[in-house]
Design brief:
Layout: H1 3-13, E1 18-23, E2 26-34, E3 46-48, H2 51-55, E4 64-67, E5 71-72, E6 101-103, E7 108-110, E8 113-117, E9 128-131, E10 134-138, E11 141-156, E12 163-167, E13 170-175, E14 181-194, E15 199-203, E16 206-211, E17 216-230, E18 236-240, E19 243-247, E20 250-256, E21 260-263, E22 267-270, E23 278-285, E24 302-308, H3 310-313, E25 327-328, E26 339-340, E27 346-347, E28 352-353, H4 381-395, H5 400-409
Parallel strand pairs: 3-4, 4-6, 5-7, 6-11, 7-11, 8-11, 9-12, 10-13, 11-14, 12-15, 13-16, 14-17, 15-18, 16-19, 17-20, 17-21, 18-22, 20-23, 23-24
Antiparallel strand pairs: 1-2, 25-26, 27-28
Length: about 400
């Protein structure tokens, strides 16, 4: 199939459906990107194609970056070519934070490993450790990104005053009004054994967030990571499905299906956040545990926050989400809960790209494998973008016959 034809259809079908990426953290300076996979690197951005490109982000921590395909980080496992001794080396440090923008472009970072005793990560006068894809982000934005099948399995054996922040996406996040983590999700597992006597913050996406203004900075995100924490001597232990803890800000339009377990005498464990945060339109699986949405439960700060049974969580009616532009539920998919239209859910364990809309007409696939839209023998992000284009095309008045002809002739 000709790539030019694919691009032309995507552009024609997705006019009026776009997201805006902040440029240089200035609201007035923006670029508009198609809601489907962006085919070329926009002006002012650096394309990320390989794990080497991703690692090189630390050479310009104020830059703007865009993923141009999935990044497989399997080689960060013990003994792999990108194993630093503790797996992936987080981007950004206490004294040199990431201050740029990362647009995931609907792609995924897969199989990230961070493991072992990370006590040597400690830095700063506060003796602080932050673990994740990014260690420290300050006034940066992360959009449309999936962290898939991550494996964070760490120990902190420093018995001194060491504060630890752990998240799949960001360990420590400092944000102001226009900074955001939006339309992101995580799957996999987080295991933390903390033998220090200071504070521990662990979240499915963000460990610790310090927000300088009371604004919505974490929105339209979900977590499917299982989180297990053991921190008997911690002065306080904050664990949440989306955010561990922090100050100010809101979590809006988010949910968590991950199982959360925390063993600590001073634990604040919540299905959405560990700390005391404002939550709006947030949901979590009642079946997983008896914990509430927030570890420091302040119901007066909650608006439309609910626990759901597994059956309820599979129903669009249970959520006050935007199912026109941002979210969808595919009743035929392996993953039965809401997913992000711009970031299709991917199970790398089964190598299936889950459609973001029901696929009721099998004749649209030209490949021999279910979901292989372009017939290359693979089911990957390219096929996911074609599925998005297909449904966007139908929404503009195209017919099944039209799409069949396009798929056959290119």
């Amino acid at each position: 199939m000709k790539k030019k034809s694919i691009v032309c259809l995507m552009v024609a079908a997705l006019i009026g459906s776009s997201v805006v990426i902040p440029a240089n953290n200035i609201q007035e300076e923006t670029i508009t990107v198609s809601a489907a996979v962006y085919d070329t690197v926009p002006e002012g951005y650096t394309g990320i194609y390989t794990i080497n490109d991703l690692y090189a982000v630390r050479n310009d921590l104020s830059g703007n970056y865009i993923l141009m395909n999935d990044i497989d980080m399997s080689e960060t496992a013990p003994g792999g070519e990108w194993d630093s001794g503790n797996g992936w080396e987080p981007i950004g440090s206490y004294y040199n934070e990431f201050k740029g923008n990362l647009y995931g472009n609907g792609y995924k970072i897969r199989n990230m490993h961070i493991y072992g005793d990370v006590s040597e990560f400690a830095e700063s006068a506060d003796n602080e450790i932050s673990v994740g894809l990014f260690g420290y982000v300050s006034y940066g934005t992360i959009l449309d990104l999936g962290i898939v099948d991550c494996d964070i399995n760490i120990t902190v054996n420093n018995t001194g005053n060491t504060k630890v922040n752990v998240g799949t996406t960001v360990g420590y996040y400092t944000a102001q009004e226009y900074d955001t983590v939006s339309e992101c999700y995580s799957t996999g597992s987080i295991n933390v054994e903390y033998n220090g006597n200071d504070e521990l913050y662990t979240g499915g996406l963000i460990g610790y967030e310090y927000q300088q203004t009371d604004t919505n900075n974490v929105n339209n995100c979900y977590n499917n990571c299982n989180i297990t924490v053991a921190a008997d001597n911690a002065s306080s232990c904050y664990v949440g499905g989306i955010v561990g803890g922090g100050m100010r800000a809101e979590v809006v339009a988010a949910y968590s299906t991950g199982k959360i377990t925390c063993e600590s005498a001073n634990a604040y464990t919540g299905a959405i956040v560990g700390g005391d945060r404002k939550l709006v339109q947030c949901y979590y699986l009642k079946d997983n545990s008896n914990i509430t949405a927030g570890g420091k439960n302040t119901d007066s700060k909650y608006t439309d926050v609910k626990s759901l049974t597994s059956a309820q969580a599979k129903s669009q009616a249970a959520y006050n989400f935007d199912f026109d532009e941002i979210w969808t539920i595919d009743p035929n998919a392996e993953y039965p809960y809401p997913t992000l239209i711009n970031v299709p859910y991917v199970s790398t364990q089964s190598s299936i790209v889950e459609p973001t809309q029901p696929t009721t007409n099998p004749s649209i696939s030209t490949g021999t494998k279910k979901g292989d839209m372009n017939g290359d023998g693979l089911v990957d992000a390219v096929d996911a973008s074609l599925i998005l284009s297909y449904y966007a095309y139908l929404s503009t008045g195209g017919t099944i016959d039209d799409i069949d002809e396009w798929m056959q002739n290119g």
